[in-house]
Design brief:
Number of helices: 10
Order of helices and strands: EHEEHEHEHEEHEEEHEEHEHHH
Strand content: 15-25%
Structural class: alpha/beta
CATH topology of one domain: Rossmann fold
Length: about 325
């Protein structure tokens, strides 16, 4: 099959591209190309790269030409400049749907979010829900996956937890809200995506996807710290303090330690989808637990945060010594 992937160089997109290429499929990577954490994705066999975003329906239809299916993985967890939730999640999804229809793709899969829903007061959640509604109203055979917290090589969770624990002597958690999560291995998610796109599974279904193990988020942090050999000291802070920190992180860091949307996500917990939706059949349910081996495989090289992680205003300052604070 020939399968297009929007957000093809992002975390989920590049893991999916590698899986599909390994299984002999032709892959079309659609991405602005700003994420260069894994340059190997650009040299995958039988892969073609289109350096475009989701704002141009005409160019998207050209990229999708001849594709049997489209996996729409593009998305953001914070707004920056023109990259707003409205522009990326809503208008971008509308463009992807129209382009896929014009290219006569047979299948469209959307990667949404576990608790995406309307009228909840969060622009991130509401825009993801709006994207789901656009896909459900299309003429395409569709599948909508609603994953929770995803981890693996090159993710945000393990990457930022590792670097935070190498940088700060304490780790802040929500006071009185040790909300549970079900960490989902990216390998399990991409296996489900492949089954949907290639085998036609989950046709016209909206499905919640979570990992098999339920943990309080504090235990996730401590488990990562144990693999790193770092003692984790927890600092409970009220929700307002987390929103304050996230507001500053979004303005000071190129990839924030935590965004405003992620504070809301962690405050709610990531166990059950909202609203209720279809369940995965037994054969597709994730089985990979958040084990020490899985954590170790997904960890980046040990490195603290430094000046290089700050926005351009601070880039002129020297990057911190990787061994500082040890």
């Amino acid at each position: 099959m020939k399968i297009a992937i929007t957000g093809g160089t992002g975390f989920v997109g590049r893991h999916l591209a590698c899986r599909l290429a390994d299984h002999g499929h032709d892959v079309v990577l659609v991405s602005r190309g700003l994420d260069r954490r894994d340059p190997g994705v650009f040299s995958l066999p039988r892969a073609r790269f289109f350096a475009i975003g989701t704002s141009d329906e005409e160019k998207l239809s050209e990229a999708f030409a001849g594709c049997d299916a489209v996996a729409h993985c593009a998305g953001i967890n914070r707004e920056a400049g023109l990259q707003t939730y409205e522009r990326v999640h809503i208008q971008g999804t509308q463009n992807v749907v129209r382009a896929a229809e014009r290219a006569r793709a047979k299948k469209l899969l959307l990667v949404s979010f576990l608790r995406a829903r309307p009228r909840c007061g969060s622009p991130y959640h509401e825009s993801k829900w709006a994207a789901e509604e656009i896909v459900r109203a299309s003429r395409l055979d569709f599948t909508i996956l609603k994953p929770g917290i995803i981890y693996g090589r090159g993710d945000h969770l393990l990457d930022h937890l590792s670097r935070a624990l190498h940088t700060f002597p304490i780790f802040a958690l929500l006071r009185g809200r040790n909300a549970p999560v079900r960490p989902l291995a990216v390998e399990d998610l991409t296996a489900i995506i492949e089954a949907s796109l290639v085998e036609g599974r989950l046709s016209r279904k909206t499905v919640g996807v979570t990992g098999p193990e339920e943990l309080p988020f504090s235990q996730v942090v401590r488990r990562v710290g144990g693999v790193l050999g770092r003692r984790v000291r927890i600092l409970p802070l009220p929700l307002s303090a987390h929103y304050f920190l996230a507001w500053w992180f979004e303005r000071l860091m190129t990839i924030p330690l935590i965004s405003l949307a992620q504070v809301r996500i962690l405050a709610e917990g990531l166990v059950e989808p909202l609203p209720a939706c279809d369940s995965l059949p037994e054969g597709l349910r994730p089985k990979t637990v958040f084990s020490e081996q899985q954590i170790r495989q997904g960890l980046p090289s040990p490195e603290p945060f430094g000046w290089g992680d700050c926005r351009s205003l601070f880039r002129g300052r020297p990057k911190a010594n990787p061994r500082a604070g040890r």
